[in-house]
Specification:
Number of strands: 3
Helix content: 40-55%
Number of helices: 3
Oligomer: single chain
Structural class: alpha+beta
Strand content: 15-25%
Radius of gyration: 13 Å
Strand order of the largest sheet: 1-3-2
Number of domains: 1
Distance between the termini: 49 Å
Length: 62
C-alpha cells in the first residue's frame, strides 16, 4: 500500500498546541494563558488551534 507524503507548511494559518509550544518554547499553561488573553484560541469541536499572527501580537503586549 502506498502512503501519501505530506509536507509541513512553513507558514501555517493555525497551529496545534504542541506545534505552538515547540515554536515559542514555552509551557502549555503559559501558552494557553497568553493565547486566551489575546483571543488567539480557535476551537473546532474538541480541536484547539492557535492563530500565530494574533498570538505574536499578544506576546508583544504581554
Amino acid at each position: 500500500m502506498k502512503y501519501k507524503n505530506y509536507t509541513k507548511n512553513d507558514n501555517p494559518r493555525l497551529l496545534t498546541i504542541e506545534e505552538a509550544r515547540q515554536n515559542y518554547r514555552m509551557s502549555r499553561n503559559l501558552l494557553m494563558r497568553i493565547a486566551t488573553e489575546c483571543n488567539a484560541v480557535r476551537r473546532f469541536g474538541r480541536a484547539v488551534r492557535i492563530d500565530p499572527v494574533v498570538f505574536e501580537n499578544g506576546i508583544e503586549n504581554y
